[in-house]
């Protein structure tokens, strides 16, 4: 199959995923318990990992497209599996698989960014990207979440990890936040160059969308400018990397600013890192959303705590007394499952 046929193939596979999962469930003997289903899932994921890790390249081609489509369809159906309780061996495979997914996703976005930029009006051709409809749904979901927890339309948003095809920023800027300024951060200069090329074709949007080549850990006071900060799913692939970034954001984001994070739930955690809400120190977790349709990422929204000023000679008992107030928000997480409708 040529790369050009990949969008059609991918969309067909996604449409079939729910049907296939229903057929599989109907054909499974009633004697197969949940543990058995999880074992089958892990076995299939590990088999796909072996095949993917042996590929010569992760750039879009027939083998790459086929294997990653199988992986997505395997992990997409809702599953109660808790990846934190997997064996050490499977945990290692999951970590390596997430990095492979990240590398392949980067190649895919770069490939389609080049194709889209070749048109006279690139921003009218975004639907060429095979997962464009997913981004439309995810961006609408995140906009609705943002609206629920913010009384004002944000004037300036930062998106960390925007990549060569910054679809979230583009969809939000054109469909939902037409007067908001977007600052996109990525440490890859080539990714920013490709993204800038797409936006430069639109005179209006190029006045509101800017790209910065930075490691976000090197950005400090500038973070205070943003009312909302988006953190892409693959920025910080390990727990340690993710937590280091979150701690940095907690240190420099403006008090009361919102942090929108992408996470994963169930078997989808084989594709993307999971954000543990207990690790969001310095933030009040407002809501956690777990989609069950073809939108893979869960969404976590949190608010940067206001500054708490303590007296200079505050005793340890008084500090301990403040902790329940500071942590109160983490005990009021609203978890919703967004059905396909």
UniProtKB/TrEMBL annotation:
Its EC number is 2.5.1.43. It is an enzyme of class 2 (transferase). Transmembrane segments: none annotated. GO terms for biological process: nicotianamine biosynthetic process. Gene3D superfamilies: Vaccinia Virus protein VP39. It catalyses: 3 S-adenosyl-L-methionine = nicotianamine + 3 S-methyl-5'-thioadenosine + 3 H(+). GO terms for molecular function: nicotianamine synthase activity. Residues 1-21 form the signal peptide. Keywords: S-adenosyl-L-methionine, Signal, Transferase. Belongs to the nicotianamine synthase (NAS)-like family. PANTHER family: NICOTIANAMINE SYNTHASE 3. Synthesizes nicotianamine, a polyamine which serves as a sensor for the physiological iron status within the plant, and/or might be involved in the transport of iron. This is Nicotianamine synthase. The gene is 11405947.
